[in-house]
Specification:
The complex is a heterodimer of chains A (379) and B (397). By secondary structure, chain A is an alpha+beta fold. Helix content of chain A is 50%, strand content 17%. Chain A is built from eleven helices and ten strands. In chain A, the strands form two sheets. In chain A, strands 1, 2, 3, 4, 5, 6, 7 and 8 form an eight-stranded mixed beta sheet that branches. In chain A, helix 5 runs antiparallel to helix 6 and helix 9 packs antiparallel against helix 11. In chain B, strands 1-4-5-8 form a four-stranded mixed beta sheet. Chain B is built from twelve helices and eight strands. Chain B is α+β, with helices and mostly antiparallel strands and 397 residues long. In chain B, a hairpin with a 4-residue loop joins strand 2 and strand 3. Classes of the chains: A alpha+beta (379), B alpha+beta (397).
C-alpha cells in the first residue's frame, strides 16, 4: 500500500523532468516538491520515534520508498533526513535530540556532515576536531560530500576529541556563526552535495548529542549503506524498464531490436542483477530493523550492509551502463534519461564506500585469523 | 519478507533433525554427504536401502496427501525437511524423481488405477524412477521429440521406438516416464503423449554416457518396440505436453534451501583451504571469496522471498531468475575452488582418474548452466516472460 501511494505521488509529481529542472535550483533540491511530500504524505516522519511526533518505523518502509524515489531521481532530501533520524535514534535522549527529531518530523532538512572521506568514510575520515572550551565546545575543520548540505536546516557533525580517541556527534543549526556551506557541482547533476567548513565554531554543551559515538557511527553508516542500496535498486530497476521500453520501439533490419537475442540476453542479465540486489535489500532492511528493536547484533547489520552495498552498487552501474549500450547513439545524448541513471549509479556506487571495499569487509570477516568464527574454518 | 519460520515449523525442524541424527548412523554412516550431483552413481544399493529407512520413518513424499501416504506437508515444512536433510549430510536421494516428478504428475493427471499401482512403491522407497524427456534432437527444443509410440492392436499395448538421452540413473531405476509422439502428423508440442514403462523389458537398451569427470550418471535409453500397457498412458493420447509441463511446475522451490546447504559445505571447504594455503591473503581472491559468500546469501534471500510471495503457483520475478542465478554461482565456485587450490588442482589423487571433491565440483558444475534449461534458454525465458520482449521465431526445419 505504501509502495502504491508512493508510485502514485511520484509519477504525478516527480517525473524526471523535475529532476532535470532541479539542476538549476539552489542546492539542486526541489523544496516545493519536498514541502508537498512532507505535508501530503509525511514520509519524513517514518523513522522518527513516536515520542518525537514521528511514526517510529524503520528501514523496511524507508527502503521501499527510497526504491521509488531512486527510480524517479526525485530531488528531495528524504535519504538525508531519514539517515539523520536513524543516527539520532543512536544517541542518548536529550533536549537537542528531541528538537531535531521533531524538526525532521515537521519537514526540516537535516543531514549528516560526518566525514572528509579521507582515507575512508568511517571514523578515520573525520576532519573536525572538538576542543572543550568553558561550558561548551569549539569545533574546527571540514566535512565533505554532505548530502543536501546547501539546503539543510540542521547539520549532524561528527568530530574527534583533542586526543583523537573519542568520536562525538554534535547537532548544529546550519546558520551558526563560523559555518560555511559550499554547494558543489557534481558529476551526477541530479544529486545535491556540499562541503561544510567549520571555522572555530563555538557551541554550547547542549549541542553535544553523543560522546563515545564511534561504534554508533559505524552502525549509522551501515544503515546509510542500506538506504543507498534502496536508491540503487530503484535506479537500476528504472534504467532496466526504460531500456526495455526503448528497445521495444526501436526498429532496425525490419524488426524491433528487442527481438534480437543479443539484446534480450543483456536485458535478462540486467534483471538478474536487479532482482538479486532486491532480495539482499529486503534482507538487509529486515536485519537493520531487527537491530533497531534490539534483536540483532551490529555485526549482522555490518555484514548485511556490506553485502547489499556491493551487490546493489555493481548492479546499478552494470544495468545503467548496459542501458546506455542498448540505447545506442541516443543513449549518450542529454535528451534521453538513461544517462541520468548512469550518472546516479556512478555517484551512489562510491558514496559511503565502493563495492570492492564492502567486499573486503566480508572477506576480512571470513578469512582473517582473528575474525569471528575463525576457529570453525581453521585448517 | 519473512526471514523466520513459525514456532510450529521450528518444532518440525527439530523433529526432522533428531530423526536424521538417530538414523543416519551405523550402516548409513558411509553414505553421509555422498551421492550428490557429480557423485550420483556411488553407493547405490546403500542409498536405496536408506530410502526404505526414510520411508519407514515417514519421511518420503512429505508433500503428498495423507491418502497416498504423505503428510500433506506445507511448502515451508518441505523446505525445512530439505534444509535439515542437507545439513545432516543426507545422501543424494535415489527416490527424488519418483517423489517430486512422477508422484505429483500422477496425483494431478493420473487415473485412480495408476495412482494405486505406482504411488505406494514410490512412497515406500521400493520403486525408482527416471525421466525420459531429452533426445539427441530435443535438447533445449524439448518439444522436437522424435521418439514415437504406436498402438499394437494385436498385443493391445503401445510400442515405443526411438532414443532418450541424459537419463539420470536409468541403469539403477525400475521405471521411466517417457514423452513420445503418438501422432506423426503433428509437430512441436502437439501430438505428444506421456507414458509409464518398466525398464526391465525386451526392447529397452540402456547405455551409460561417460562424462568429463570419468564417471557415468547419465545414460542413453534406446527403445525398440518396448511395451507400454494401454492403462499406463497418462491423460489422453496427444495430451502429453500439458502433462509434462505441469510436472515442471511441481517443484516450487522446496529444495532450494537444501541445495544451498550443500553449496555452503562446498564454499566452507574452499574457505578452509584458502586460509590454510595462504591464498586468503591475496587481494583478488579475497574479493572473489567475498563475492561467493555474498552470492550464496543472495540465493538464500531470493528463496525466502519466493516463499514469502503469493502462493498462486505463478512464477514471480525472483523465481524466474533462480536457475540462472544458482547455476552460474555454482559454476563460478568451481572455478574459484581450483584457483584457490592453485597448482595442486592439477594433481589427481589416484589412477585411473580419482578426483577429489573440488576437482569434481570444478568439472561437473560446467553442466549446471546446461541442464534444466541452458543459460541461453533461461535468458530467453526471462526476457520473454518476465520482461515481455518478443519471442524467438521458430526455424522452418
Amino acid at each position: 500500500m505504501l509502495r502504491e501511494s508512493a508510485m502514485r505521488f511520484l509519477s504525478a509529481h516527480s517525473p524526471t523532468v523535475v529532476a532535470r529542472n532541479a539542476m538549476t535550483l539552489p542546492g539542486n533540491v526541489d523544496l516545493a516538491l519536498w514541502g508537498r511530500m512532507t505535508q501530503e504524505l509525511g514520509w519524513q516522519a517514518i523513522p522518527v520515534p513516536e515520542s518525537s511526533e514521528g511514526l517510529g518505523l524503520g528501514l523496511v518502509e524507508l527502503t521501499l520508498l527510497l526504491e521509488e524515489t531512486g527510480a524517479c531521481l526525485s530531488p528531495i532530501p528524504l535519504m538525508s533526513s531519514a539517515l539523520s533520524a536513524l543516527a539520532l535514534r543512536m544517541v542518548p535522549d536529550s533536549e537537542t535530540q528531541r528538537s531535531i527529531l521533531q524538526a525532521i518530523a515537521g519537514g526540516a532538512v537535516v543531514t549528516l556532515a560526518h566525514t572528509a572521506a579521507r582515507p575512508d568514510w568511517g571514523a578515520p575520515g573525520i576532519a573536525v576536531s572538538a576542543v572543550k572550551r568553558g561550558e561548551g565546545w569549539r569545533l574546527h575543520g571540514e566535512a565533505r560530500f554532505v548530502s543536501c548540505g546547501a539546503v539543510a536546516d540542521w547539520l549532524l557533525v561528527a568530530a574527534v576529541s583533542e586526543d583523537q580517541r573519542n568520536v562525538m556527534l554534535f547537532g548544529l543549526p546550519s546558520d551558526l556563526a563560523g559555518i560555511a556551506v559550499n554547494h558543489r557541482v557534481t558529476l551526477d547533476q541530479t544529486r545535491s552535495m556540499a562541503d561544510v567548513q567549520l571555522e572555530n565554531v563555538v557551541v554550547e554543551e547542549s549541542a553535544l548529542l553523543a560522546d563515545n559515538w564511534l561504534s554508533a557511527l559505524e552502525t549509522a553508516l551501515d544503515m546509510g549503506r542500506v538506504l543507498v542500496a534502496a536508491e540503487q535498486v530503484g535506479c537500476a530497476q528504472r534504467a532496466l524498464d526504460i531500456t526495455v521500453d526503448y528497445v521495444g520501439e526501436r526498429v532496425q533490419f525490419g524488426r524491433t531490436i528487442a527481438s534480437f537475442q543479443a539484446v534480450k540476453h543483456k536485458a535478462a542479465d540486467m534483471m538478474l542483477k536487479v532482482e538479486s540486489a532486491r532480495s539482499l535489500l529486503y534482507y538487509a532492511a529486515c536485519t537493520a530493523d531487527a537491530w533497531l528493536r534490539g534483536n540483532a547484533r551490529a555485526e549482522a547489520v555490518r555484514e548485511a550492509a556490506a553485502m547489499v552495498a556491493s551487490t546493489a552498487g555493481d548492479a546499478a552501474f552494470f544495468v545503467a551502463g548496459t542501458g546506455i549500450q542498448l540505447h545506442g547513439g541516443v543513449g549518450i545524448t542529454e535528451e534521453y534519461d538513461i544517462q541520468l541513471y548512469f550518472k546516479r549509479a556512478r555517484a551512489l556506487e562510491s558514496y559511503l564506500g565502493r563495492p570492492d571495499e564492502s567486499r573486503e569487509v566480508i572477506a576480512a570477516a571470513l578469512l582473517d585469523v582473528d575474525a569471528p568464527g575463525a576457529d570453525s574454518h581453521a585448517a | 519478507m519473512r526471514l523466520e519460520f513459525s514456532e510450529e515449523d521450528e518444532c518440525f525442524r527439530e523433529e526432522v533433525a533428531t530423526w536424521l541424527a538417530q538414523h543416519l548412523v551405523g550402516q548409513f554412516q558411509v553414505i553421509r554427504g555422498r551421492g550428490g550431483p557429480g557423485d550420483e552413481h556411488r553407493f547405490v544399493p546403500e542409498r536405496k536401502e536408506w530410502e526404505r529407512c526414510l520411508a519407514e520413518g515417514g519421511w518420503t513424499c512429505l508433500g503428498w496427501p495423507e491418502q497416498w501416504g504423505g503428510r500433506g506437508a506445507s511448502i515451508e515444512q518441505q523446505v525445512i525437511f530439505n534444509e535439515e536433510y542437507a545439513r545432516a549430510g543426507g545422501p543424494g536421494r535415489m527416490g527424488h524423481i519418483g517423489e517430486t516428478l512422477t508422484g505429483p504428475t500422477l496425483l494431478a493427471y493420473g487415473s485412480e488405477d495408476q495412482k494405486q499401482r505406482f504411488l505406494p512403491g514410490i512412497r515406500k522407497g521400493e520403486a525408482f524412477w527416471c525421466q525420459g524427456y531429452s533426445e539427441p534432437a530435443a535438447g533445449s527444443d524439448l518439444s522436437n521429440i522424435k521418439t514415437r509410440a504406436e498402438w499394437d492392436a494385436e498385443a493391445a499395448c503401445w510400442r515405443l521406438y526411438g532414443q532418450k538421452v541424459w537419463t539420470s540413473l536409468a541403469h539403477e531405476s525400475d521405471f521411466i516416464f517417457v514423452l513420445a509422439r503418438t501422432d506423426p502428423e503433428q509437430q512441436g508440442h502437439k501430438g505428444l503423449s506421456f507414458f509409464l514403462l518398466p525398464l526391465a523389458q525386451k526392447g529397452i537398451d540402456i547405455r551409460p554416457i561417460k562424462q568429463l569427470t570419468g564417471t557415468a550418471e547419465f545414460n542413453e535409453v534406446f527403445f525398440d518396440g518396448a511395451a507400454c500397457a494401454a492403462e499406463d498412458l497418462v491423460g489422453e493420447a496427444g495430451d502429453g505436453w500439458r502433462v509434462a509441463m505441469g510436472l515442471l511446475g511441481f517443484e516450487r522451490g522446496v529444495s532450494t534451501l537444501g541445495q544451498q546447504m550443500l553449496f555452503q559445505v562446498e564454499l566452507d571447504e574452499v574457505i578452509r583451504i584458502a586460509r590454510a594455503n595462504g591464498s586468503a591473503q591475496q587481494p583478488a581472491l579475497r574479493q572473489r571469496i567475498a563475492e561467493a559468500h555474498i552470492g550464496l546469501r543472495t540465493l538464500r534471500y531470493n528463496s525466502l522471498r519466493m516463499l514469502s510471495g503469493d502462493d498462486d503457483g505463478s512464477l514471480s520475478r525472483e523465481a524466474m531468475i533462480y536457475k540462472l542465478a544458482w547455476s552460474n554461482w555454482h559454476r563460478n565456485l568451481g572455478k574459484l575452488a581450483v584457483d584457490v587450490l592453485g597448482p595442486e588442482a592439477e594433481l589427481v589423487e589416484a589412477a585411473p582418474y580419482e578426483l577429489n571433491r573440488l576437482q569434481s565440483l570444478f568439472l561437473f558444475t560446467r553442466a549446471d548452466t546446461i541442464y534444466g534449461g541452458t543459460n541461453q534458454i533461461q535468458r530467453n525465458l526471462i526476457a520473454e516472460r518476465a520482461l515481455g520482449m518478443p519471442r524467438e521465431p521458430r526455424g522452418d526445419a
